Amino acid sequence: MSARIGVVTFPGSLDDRDAQRAIRLAGAEPVALWHADHDLQGVDAIVLPGGFSYGDYLRPGAIAAVSPIMTEVVSAAKAGMPVLGICNGFQVLVEAHLLPGGLIRNAHQQFIRRDQKLIVENARTAWTSEFEQGEEITIPLKNGDGGYIADDETLKRIEGEGLVAFRYAGVNPNGSLNDIAGLTNERGNVVGLMPHPEHAVEAGFGPDTPEAMRSGLDGAKFFTSAVQALAARV
C-alpha cells in the first residue's frame, strides 16, 4: 500500500497541483486537503505548497497559520508526522512556530525568479535523506518575501544544533541571514525551504543542467526521501 501524502490548498495557493504531481511521481498517493477543514484524511505526511495564501495579507503565511487545517497540521507535526513547507508553506511553518525565525521582503525589494544552487546542510531529515551532506543541488526559486531573519540567539542555536537544512550557494538571492534557504526542526520531521523542489521532478520541466536543457531532477529526492522514511516506519 503506497504512502498517502496530503497537500493543503489555501485560498491563493499556486503550486498545490505541482506538489501533488511530484508526490505521484515519487510513488505515493497525493491527497488534497482543504484549509477550512479539520480532517487530515488519515494521511502519512503533509506538504504546505507555495503561493500567496490569503493574498499575503498581514504577512505572508500569517493568516494561513491560524486556519482550521493548521490546528491539525501542528498537532500532527508535533507527534512526528513529516511536514514539508515550500516557499509560502515555509512562511506558514514559521508563522505557526513549527520552525524558528521569520521571513521578510527580499533585500532588493523585488520578486525574484531563478534556478538556484543550494548546499544540503542536513541530510538526516525525513525530506532530505536521499541527499548527501554537502551536496550541491539546483532548485527553482520564485519569491518576493524570502529573506530569512532571526535574532542572534536563535541563529546561534539553529547553527549549533544543525537545524539549517539548506544554504544558498553562489549567490544569496534575497538577503537571508547566514545564506539560510531552509530549516528543519530538532526531530527532523518538519522541513521548510524557499525554493520549489516540486518544479524539478520531471525531465523536460526542471532546471537546465550541463547534460541537457530542463533536465534537472534534484527536487525529486525530497519526495522520494519522504516515501522511504514512511516505508521504514512500517
UniProtKB/TrEMBL annotation:
Matching Gene3D superfamilies: 3.40.50.880
Keywords: ATP-binding, Cytoplasm, Glutamine amidotransferase, Hydrolase, Ligase, Nucleotide-binding, Purine biosynthesis
UniProt keyword Cell membrane present: no
Catalytic residues as annotated in Swiss-Prot or TrEMBL: 87 (nucleophile), 196, 198
EC number, as in UniProt: 6.3.5.3, 3.5.1.2
Database matches in PANTHER family: PHOSPHORIBOSYLFORMYLGLYCINAMIDINE SYNTHASE SUBUNIT PURQ
Entry protein name: Phosphoribosylformylglycinamidine synthase subunit PurQ
High-level lineage: Bacteria, Bacillati, Actinomycetota, Actinomycetes, Micrococcales
